[in-house]
């Protein structure tokens, strides 16, 4: 009985260090989506041991990053400037209410049109470091097998106003997604591994 008590006590005492290691790894992972010079001061979102979305570290600069979501298949970390956060936060809130992707898009679009939701600034970016088989290596502290995809927010932009097509001309070519809407953006998906 005494051995069981000691083992239980040892496990309980080690739990915070496991959670802390997870937090440190998530921060190291998430900041890799940000420009190198912005990593130390980026606000970091991640997930607790139950998979809940939480702040892991308060930021001191204009960047926000998010660790990979353990509740989703594949791998994806993201980075964006603070002016995109109201748009992202509203999407998270609507998802928590049980709204599907189409409903979230429609509600945010309406709210940006009527001025109740701050739209991302023209030229603000979203950098997505992702991959079906990508993973974070805790030994090296690096993401392996990932690729970047870029979103440049251009509210209300069209092919006419940007000079870009509404579909990519080929792999890695920029194009306007959701033309004419507040969520319009230039999408750039470099070839895998770039």
Overall description:
The protein has a domain at 40-82 and 120-188. It is built from 4 helices and 10 strands. It has helices spanning 2-30, 85-96, 101-113, 159-162; strands spanning 43-47, 53-57, 63-66, 75-81, 125-131, 135-137, 142-144, 147-153, 175-177, 185-188. Helix 2 packs across helix 3.
Give the helix/strand layout.
Layout (H helix, E strand, L loop, with lengths): L1 H29 L12 E5 L5 E5 L5 E4 L8 E7 L3 H12 L4 H13 L11 E7 L3 E3 L4 E3 L2 E7 L5 H4 L12 E3 L7 E4 L6
Parallel strand pairs: 1-3
Antiparallel strand pairs: 1-2, 3-4, 4-5, 5-8, 6-7, 8-10, 9-10
The number of helical segments is: 4
Question: Which shape, going by the Cα principal axes?
Answer: globular
Strand elements, count: 10
Radius of gyration: 20 Å
Which percent range describes the beta-strand content?
A: 15-25%
């Amino acid at each position: 009985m005494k051995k069981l008590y000691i083992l239980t006590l040892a496990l309980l005492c080690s739990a915070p260090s496991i959670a802390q290691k997870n937090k440190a790894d998530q921060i190291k992972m998430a900041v890799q989506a940000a420009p190198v010079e912005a990593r130390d001061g980026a606000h970091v979102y991640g997930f607790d041991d139950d998979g809940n979305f939480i702040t892991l570290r308060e930021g001191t600069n204009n960047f926000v990053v998010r660790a990979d979501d353990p509740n989703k298949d594949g791998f994806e970390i993201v980075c964006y400037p603070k002016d995109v956060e109201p748009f992202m936060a509203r999407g998270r809130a609507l998802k928590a209410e049980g709204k599907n992707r189409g409903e979230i898009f429609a509600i945010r679009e309406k709210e940006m049109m009527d001025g109740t939701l701050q739209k991302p600034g023209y030229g603000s970016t979203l950098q997505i470091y992702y991959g079906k088989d990508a993973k974070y290596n805790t030994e090296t502290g690096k993401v392996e097998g990932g690729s970047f995809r870029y979103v440049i927010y251009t509210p209300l932009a069209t092919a006419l106003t940007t000079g870009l097509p509404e579909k990519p001309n080929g792999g890695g070519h920029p194009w306007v997604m959701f033309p004419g809407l507040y969520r319009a953006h230039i999408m750039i998906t470099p070839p895998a591994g770039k």
